[in-house]
Amino acid sequence: MSEVDENPLTSLQDDVLAELGDDRIWDIAGLLGTDEAGARQMVGTTVTALSGEADTVATPHEAPLTGVATLGGFATGGLMAGVLAEEAESVAHAVARRTGLAPEAVSRVVEMVIPVELAVLTKRAGRH
Question: Environment class of residue 128 by beta-carbon count within 10 Å: exposed (0-12), middle (13-18) or buried (19+)?
Answer without folding.
Answer: exposed
